[in-house]
Design brief:
alpha/beta; OB fold (Dihydrolipoamide Acetyltransferase, E2P); Rossmann fold; 3 domains; six-stranded mixed β-sheet; five-stranded mixed barrel; 8 helices; 15 strands; globular
Length: 296
């Protein structure tokens, strides 16, 4: 007997899988899959097999997409955060902790390099002046990113964010302490996710999500609540492909004097000319230069 399902989470070799009829089963990997190079991730679609009352994962179906990043702490290779994702929801706080646009740009490049649409959520807008928050993140709608300003205290922006999540598989990502779990609890009270306080000594959030968790949504779709990331590494992206991970640059690519223009020091660069003319964000361009140097 077999069933198809979606992996919701996994710890200690036991994986929680939601089957097509809505049931949830705790299963293990069949022996031959334990040594497979294709590591299992939340969001993976799998075939379960009943082996005398004990369900096992017999097959991992091909993925249509992955959200991956470099393994942390200098380790070589990639870490798959979630599989079969439709979009990435990058959550930053308007304050507490203080937002860092360079880190936001890094998250967006990871989404772009994985071929995934990204939405930006600026949470905790009740802590700041609304106009100031919009001014601070003004570069991103101009770059083509949908942006949601939200507060779990005043509930501003929550209906619009729920509409963006409905019927899709989304991965929530972003630094620790920005309120990802609080947002999910406010949107879907039945989730009852653990929420951590902000450490006042370092103004960084304490980790409350220890591994990616895929939650079925009551109005259709799934959302993966991913661990807060203190370091965000880009994996599998060449320096020469970085410019296409800045969507606002794309219209200017191919108009530089040199076909292999790096957009850093070359003469007659269309991207730098657009920066000088105020058509592109100088701050976003600075992120591009820093990331290109890192990738090189």
């Amino acid at each position: 007997m077999t069933e198809q399902g979606v992996v919701l989470q996994g710890t200690g070799g036991v994986w929680s899988v939601r089957t097509s009829d809505g049931a949830t089963r705790d299963v293990s990997l069949r022996g031959r899959l334990k040594i497979s190079a294709d590591k299992l991730a939340v969001g993976d679609e799998v075939i379960l097999e009943d082996a005398g009352g004990a369900w096992t994962i017999a097959e991992i179906l091909p993925r249509r997409s992955v959200l991956a990043r470099r393994s942390p702490s200098g380790a070589y290779g990639e870490r798959i955060v979630a599989a079969n994702v439709d979009q990435v929801i990058v959550v930053f706080a308007a304050a507490n902790p203080e937002p860092h646009p360079r880190m936001l740009d890094r998250f967006l490049v990871i989404a772009e390099s994985n071929g995934l649409q990204a939405h930006i959520v600026v949470n905790k807008v009740d802590l700041v002046d609304a106009a100031a928050a919009r001014a601070r993140f003004a570069d991103y709608p101009l770059a083509g990113y949908p942006i949601h300003y939200t507060s779990t205290v005043t509930r501003v922006g929550l209906d619009e964010l729920a509409a963006a999540l409905k019927g899709r598989t989304s991965a929530l990502s972003g630094p620790s302490g920005v309120g990802k779990s609080s947002l999910l609890n406010a949107l879907y009270p039945g989730l009852n996710l653990r929420v951590g306080e902000i450490s006042q000594s370092v103004n960084k959030g304490r980790h409350t999500t220890v591994g990616a968790l895929l939650h079925p949504l009551p109005d259709g779709g799934y959302v993966a609540d991913t661990p807060g990331l203190r370091e965000v590494g880009i994996w599998g992206l060449s320096a020469d492909a970085l410019d296409r991970c800045f969507p606002e640059f794309v219209a200017h690519l191919g108009h530089c004097r040199f076909a292999d223009c790096h957009h850093v020091v070359e003469p007659d660069c269309a991207v730098r000319a657009a920066i000088a003319a105020g058509e592109l964000s100088a701050n976003r361009y600075d992120s591009y230069v820093r990331l290109r140097h890192e990738l090189q």
